[in-house]
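User: Here's a structure from my thesis project, written as structure tokens. My advisor, Dr. K., wants to see whether a designed sequence matches the one we expressed. Can you design one independently, without my sequence as a hint?
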């Protein structure tokens, strides 16, 4: 009924990355390989089943084989403690090449180009999110907040860049940038510093592909803007008047119809008429300094027929703004929210349980497991784009929860020969055929 090339290729890529994990064990305590530990952890996130390995141990005892072995290629199933101990020394950056391989699979199939917007650019929003916090549990890589009452909150956070499109309900996850203590820096790491590292590091591989970076007001400053331009990126960044007083005053002094322009569009939103008022100006200073970068400014205000404001926001960009493209440029800028709604919230609330403490470790465990969770989400995204059977099954089942409930139930009671076998079994059970799609 078909072969899941993408799943096999991605598991192969992950296994290759795991082979670079450090293993300092000596003596005879080598029953479990690093692949067993890492793929075991990944299998839990991929199936969204915290008890997956326990179920597979029981299946092994009853049937002499199990799905951890046949689908994820584990030789032996480690205990949770073994997994935590073995994985803690491994830096999450060691599995970042798997994100690149997933990108290449989607690119070769033409799916990356499907995300390009009206001007041919890819949109990549940058946004920070917490994925762990505790008053007691912490490691050397934790950030911390000291409260006035003397207590301490320890936490982990990261940037979660994704590729988005205004009209798509899916995003393509890219490798995260963790907000961690940096060698040679006394000051605690922050989202702004992490963004600069991503732009100069991981981001370099994307800038030649024509990319517009999206971000909130935190990124709308001279150092970030200049760094983006120097590294070949375009940008659309939120620009709040309170934090950009020079720019705001400059815009208001421009002559309407000459240097500042207005476009008005009336729309029916399904319930009432709304008026979209776009204002824009090209070549304005981002800050009050001789070395400032000059940007293009645009603002959208949405009002109803009674004059009540439903939405108002402004952006700066390096794209030249015209009457014809201002609507699309603002739409792209507003798409920034998808990194939170369709990526971070999915990772936290849709079964991936990003904020659950699966094990903190002393060094890298927390960040490595977070990376595995993002990878699991990416694997499913790739499968939905490239695997007809997977897409048909997801379309047939009413919700994401139903799909993963079925995966959990089936893999608990039936041992499948491989991922293909599982998909074919679900196709037959749901009475689906490839020509249904």
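Assistant: Designed independently from the structure alone:
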């Amino acid at each position: 009924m078909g072969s899941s090339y993408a799943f096999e290729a991605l598991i192969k890529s992950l296994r290759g990355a795991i082979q670079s994990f450090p293993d300092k064990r000596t003596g005879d305590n080598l029953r479990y390989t690093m692949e067993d530990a890492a793929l075991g952890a990944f299998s839990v996130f991929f199936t969204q089943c915290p008890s997956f390995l326990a179920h597979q141990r029981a299946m092994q005892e009853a049937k002499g084989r199990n799905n951890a072995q046949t689908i994820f290629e584990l030789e032996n199933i480690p205990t949770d403690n073994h997994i935590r101990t073995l994985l803690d020394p491994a830096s999450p950056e060691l599995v970042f090449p798997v994100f690149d391989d997933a990108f290449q699979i989607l690119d070769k199939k033409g799916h990356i180009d499907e995300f390009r917007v009206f001007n041919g650019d890819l949109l990549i929003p940058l946004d920070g999110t917490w994925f762990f916090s505790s008053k007691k549990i912490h490691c050397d890589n934790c950030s911390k907040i000291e409260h006035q009452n003397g207590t301490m909150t320890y936490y982990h956070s990261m940037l979660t860049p994704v590729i988005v499109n205004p009209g798509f309900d899916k995003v393509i996850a890219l490798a995260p940038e963790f907000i961690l203590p940096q060698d040679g820096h006394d000051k605690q790491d922050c989202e702004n510093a992490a963004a600069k590292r991503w732009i100069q590091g991981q981001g370099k591989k994307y800038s030649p592909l024509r990319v517009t970076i999206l971000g909130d007001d935190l990124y709308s400053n001279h150092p970030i803007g200049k760094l983006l331009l120097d590294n070949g990126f375009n940008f659309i960044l939120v620009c709040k008047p309170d934090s950009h007083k020079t720019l705001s005053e400059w815009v208001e002094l421009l002559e309407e119809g000459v240097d500042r322009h207005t476009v008005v569009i009336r729309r029916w939103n399904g319930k009432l008429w709304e008026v979209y008022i776009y204002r824009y100006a090209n070549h304005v200073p981002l800050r009050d300094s001789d070395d400032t970068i000059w940007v293009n400014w645009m603002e959208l205000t949405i009002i109803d027929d009674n004059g009540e404001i439903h939405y108002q926001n402004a952006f700066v960009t390096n794209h030249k703004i015209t009457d014809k493209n201002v609507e699309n440029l603002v739409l792209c800028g507003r798409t920034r929210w998808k990194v939170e709604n369709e990526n971070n919230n999915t990772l936290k609330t849709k079964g991936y349980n990003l904020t659950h403490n699966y094990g903190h470790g002393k060094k890298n465990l927390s960040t490595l497991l977070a990376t595995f969770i993002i990878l699991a989400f990416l694997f499913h995204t790739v499968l939905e784009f490239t695997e007809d059977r997977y897409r048909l099954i997801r379309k047939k089942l009413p919700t994401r929860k139903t799909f993963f409930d079925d995966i959990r139930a089936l893999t608990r009671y039936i041992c499948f020969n491989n991922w293909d076998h599982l998909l074919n079994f679900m196709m037959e059970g749901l009475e689906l055929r490839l020509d249904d799609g």
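When you compare it with your expressed construct, this may help: The longest strand covers residues 273-285.
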